[in-house]
Specification:
With about 325 residues, chain A is α/β, with parallel strands linked by helices. Chain A has two domains: about 10-135 and about 290-305, Aspartate/ornithine carbamoyltransferase (Rossmann fold, 3-Layer(aba) Sandwich), CATH 3.40.50.1370; about 140-290, 3-Layer(aba) Sandwich (Rossmann fold). Chain A is built from ten helices and nine strands. Chain A has helices spanning about 15-35, 60-70, 90-100, 115-120, 140-150, 170-180, 210-215, 240-245, 250-255, 285-305; strands spanning about 50-55, 75, 105-110, 125-130, 160-165, 185-190, 205, 220, 260. In chain A, strands 7-6-5-8-9 form a five-stranded parallel sheet. In chain A, strands 2-1-3-4 form a four-stranded parallel sheet. Chain B contains four helices and eight strands; from the N terminus they run H-E-H-E-H-E-E-H-E-E-E-E. Helices cover about 25% and strands about 30% of the residues of chain B. In chain B, the strands form two sheets. Chain B has a five-stranded parallel sheet. By secondary structure, chain B is α/β, with parallel strands linked by helices. The interface of A and B includes residues 2, 28, 41 and 42 of A.
């Protein structure tokens, strides 16, 4: 057997343009698997994947779970609330304990940035970042890229406008990097209080006027207002935020007819997106969720089964 | 999957396929296609329940050619699909494995005779994977196998139903089916 160290997906910086292309092509194959009468392939038979979710999640966790099962991997569930973490077990001890049982992959979500990176030091398994603090959420970005690609084909020169709570958003950080890597033009729109303190190194333009930014955009990407991460009021009121920075009915009417409305979920209807707008055919939010399973199958297969070296964890020190 | 392509997916710098002998001309191949189409119709008493599935990537053009030949003979078309059985292979971990193309099975194979088409039959492992893959789409009434070249060296109890040419080979030789015919050679 070929010897190869474990590969990890910690950040969109681990993938170059070719790597992303290859992953999205692979996703097409797995999307087809999902449409079969029996949507299951034996590709990861005998592999075990553990979920380590230190933060709440519905769609990401279920999506990973579905993806792993469709690949015939065994899954090990770890619920923080009913585990030894409550007895004071440290993260390191938890990881080493789980690793000792013999696992091939660990999917980690944690409220602190950098935890997945840290976890790689304590295990021989492949680590996949399912969201760490404000830092990165690479599989969300990949499913967004895949959704956009199915509608537009090549993303070179396409315009994506990312709107809302960018400061607290790992999705914004992953997507700014991912879409820019694919050649798209990324514009961020947010009030100054919801932008990161420094945008140095971000491959983006910034605009404070949403109407201006949406004029010629291909994708209007709305972020969830992360009220749980905000220690102090960063906007005067949610209604005012909606009027200034939300996708209102009037703004949605002015979008180009082939433009897409995307949202990583869960939505705050009436805050970042008007309830009615989320139901329009341009809003591909349900499609994003469906593509999430195919993308995560591709990621799990690539890291645990394919034997390919697509991910380069030392490409950019991010 | 075309044997040549499979070996080439493990990049070996400076090594490429060198043809030594042409074992079938393009005319030989198209005559074999017509004969196999006749045999398929004879065996299944017509084209009614027949469905042709080409293995990615070497069997796809061949499957198309066989389906056209069947249509020329019978006057009715048969469904043509393509299959990438990579996800059902048994050699994960032994070499890099990645699907080449998206599978397309256009109709429910349940109750039909599915004819798997590939360019070269070698160990039989691709065909084993293909049979597994087809069963995740339905339960065919029968699965049959058509190959342009049977080069021997089977590692599984698999036997083709329709053969373009039986070609005894050494295990280290390479059979390449291309637009100009069939070549025998080696990697050098």
């Amino acid at each position: 057997m070929r010897q190869r160290g474990p590969h990890h997906l910690l950040s969109m910086a681990d993938l170059d343009r070719d790597g992303i292309e290859q992953l999205l092509n692979l996703t097409e194959s797995f999307a087809e698997v999902g449409e079969r009468p029996i949507p299951k392939v034996p590709a990861l038979r005998g592999k075990t994947v553990a979920w380590l979710f230190y933060e709440d999640s519905t769609r990401t966790r279920l999506s990973f779970e579905t993806a792993a099962k469709r690949l015939s991997a065994d899954t090990m569930n770890f619920s923080v609330s009913s585990s030894s973490v409550n007895k004071g077990e440290s993260l390191r001890d938890t990881i080493e304990t789980i690793s000792a049982m013999g696992i091939d992959g660990i999917v980690v979500r944690h409220s602190a940035a950098g935890v997945p990176q840290q976890v790689t030091q304590w295990t021989e398994a492949s680590v996949i970042n399912a969201g760490d603090g404000w830092h990165q959420h690479p599989t969300q970005c990949l499913l967004d890229l895949f959704t956009a690609r199915t509608h537009f084909g090549d993303l070179e020169g396409r315009r994506i406008t990312i709107v809302g709570d960018i400061r607290h958003s790992r999705v914004a950080r992953s997507n700014a990097l991912g879409f820019a890597t694919m050649g798209a033009k990324v514009t961020l729109v947010a009030p100054p209080s919801l932008l990161p303190s420094s945008l140095e190194g971000w491959p983006v333009a910034v605009c404070h006027n949403l109407d201006e930014a949406l004029e010629d955009t291909d994708i209007c990407y709305l972020l969830r207002m992360q009220l749980e991460r905000q220690k102090q009021a960063v906007v005067p009121s949610l209604r005012e935020f909606h009027n200034e920075y939300g996708l209102t009915v009037a703004r949605a009417d002015r979008l180009r007819s082939d433009a897409l409305i995307m949202h990583p979920g869960p939505m705050n209807r009436g805050v970042e997106i008007a309830g009615e707008v989320a139901e329009r055919p341009q809003a591909v939010i349900g499609e994003q969720v469906a593509n999430g399973v195919s993308v995560r199958m591709a990621v799990l297969f690539l890291l645990l089964g394919s034997g390919l070296d697509v991910v380069d964890n030392n490409r950019i020190a991010a | 999957m075309a044997e040549r392509e499979r070996r080439l997916t493990t990049p070996n710098p400076g090594v490429s396929f060198q043809a030594r002998t042409r074992v079938m001309s393009a005319d030989d191949v198209s005559r074999a296609v017509r004969r196999m189409a006749h045999e398929i119709l004879e065996r299944n008493h017509g084209a009614d329940q027949v469905m042709v599935v080409g293995m990615q990537t070497g069997g796809v053009a061949l499957a198309q050619a066989i389906a056209e030949a069947i249509e020329n003979i019978e006057g009715t078309g048969v469904p043509v699909g393509t299959l990438d059985a990579t996800m059902h292979r048994d050699d994960f971990g032994l070499r890099p494995v990645v699907p080449e193309a998206v599978t397309d099975i256009p109709v429910d194979p349940s109750g039909r005779v599915v004819v798997i088409v590939d360019d070269v039959l070698f160990t039989g492992r691709t065909v084993r994977a293909a049979m597994d893959a087809i069963h995740s789409y339905g339960r065919p009434q029968a699965i049959q196998l058509a190959v342009m070249v049977d080069r021997g060296h089977r590692e599984l109890p698999i036997r083709p139903d329709y053969v373009g040419k039986n070609l005894p080979t050494r295990i280290d030789e390479i059979v390449d089916v291309n637009d100009e015919g069939v070549d025998l050679g080696e990697m050098a």
